[in-house]
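Hey, resending since the last one bounced:
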Amino acid sequence: MIGAIVSFSAMAVAGRALSSDLDTFEMMTYRSLIGVVIVILMATLRGKLGEVTTRDLPRHAVRNIAHFAGQNLWLASLTLIPLAQVFALEFTSPLWVILLAPFLLGERFTLKKFGVVLCGFIGILIVAQPGTTPLSLGTITAASAAVCFALTAIFTKQLTRQHSVTCILFYLTTMQLLFGLVCAGFDGDIALPTADGLPWIIVIGLGGLTAHFCITTAMTLAPATVVLPIDFARLPVIAIIGMVLYDEPLTWPVFLGAALIFGANYVNVATESRRT
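The structure tokens again:
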């Protein structure tokens, strides 16, 4: 989980560093290119390339469109609002899963889940502070990214019933590379990375894979109720990074709202763990 925190934080810093040279579509293109090379290389070395099938291509496409949109919105929000606010709003993704799962996965929406979602959205209001400050574009993009990540999680759960992780990652990287090339090249101009920007592109390309690998590994080593509180440490870490590198203030509404969001997520995870 320490590896995941380092990876996510490094991606945020890298995304902000690249924003002056590349747009989000270009960042995703180069990130996906690195991902394609790594996934194909690892699948070949482990003899799992044969697990990639052409079944369920439409479902893969929908899943990866949601993820591609979420990643671009997340990268855009890094340049618009403080990093701590971005991460706090990103933590609402599991709450959106609770709301969308009854429609897409057929799961029951219980009274306890309603309370969890209500508590989480009170946290969102505290973080966003509508009425006291104008609703910013960065707040909208960060919140929208969380919704896209929730859709990604739901479609991933559907795909894992019939497909291996290798197959899912192969289509994740290849489809997003295609999406990136189309969106980045729509204006006929895809910017090449500069010598200074190349290390940051590598950080983004490796960061996403290592972060999710670390979280998945942590889930196999410890219960989710142990892993989740450590993941929440991303917020104070990125808040300190934002303060040191970008002079971003440490505001109490972000931490109070994030604590409510975390509390709601933790109650839901603990409930599901006991049921399992």
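The mean pLDDT is 89.

Sorry for the duplicate.
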